Amino acid sequence: MRDYWDAFIMLFIVLDSVGNIPIFYTLTSNMGEEERKKVFAKSVLVASLLLLFFTLFGYSFFAYYNVTFTDFKIAGGILLLLLALEGLIGKVEAETLRNEDVAVVPMATPLLAGPGSIYVVMYLHEVYGLLPTLVSIALNTLIAYAILSGSDVIVSKVGKNTVIVLARIFSLLLAVLAVSMIRSGFEEALRVVLGRG
Q1: Band of the pLDDT at 187, cuts 50, 70, 90?
Q2: Model pTM score
Q3: Is 160 exposed, middle or buried (CB count within 10 Å of its CB: 0-12, 13-18, 19+)?
Q4: How far apart are CA 168 and CA 189, in angstroms?
């Protein structure tokens, strides 16, 4: 049971469903409650499939395509930064981002199934085995859906105008997160280059 508990806690921390509430709500602010829940469900499902894929085939995939976590950080950071900039100038609307696009990118990846969570499930598989890792993914994604589906109740209490202000603030925070991911990726890439030199 200790293996199952440790695997669950590690992925729960990295997945950070609670921390994603304001960002996810901002990205779906133009949708109704039912539509938002469908998008949340799709994003959690896609994230689950991605985590399952990397649990089972992660090391083989990375080796075959010569992909590194550094590549994931840089690419994911750029995607988040572009979306954050659109949010800051008020261009994240239904006309520019279809719901299915938002559900997959950036909600499913890189916000939920990002470089950190992908690395964790691969690590859990190696350390604790397949079953504890699969249980951890299942429990954490179910919890993520429950938390995100209930986020509208929390956010609705603060009022529409406050949500608009918060949307800009969270877009700024998303931009900061994106820059942090890009910086971290380039720093890791630079260390690799200097190490080889």
Answers
A1: very high
A2: 0.70
A3: exposed
A4: 31
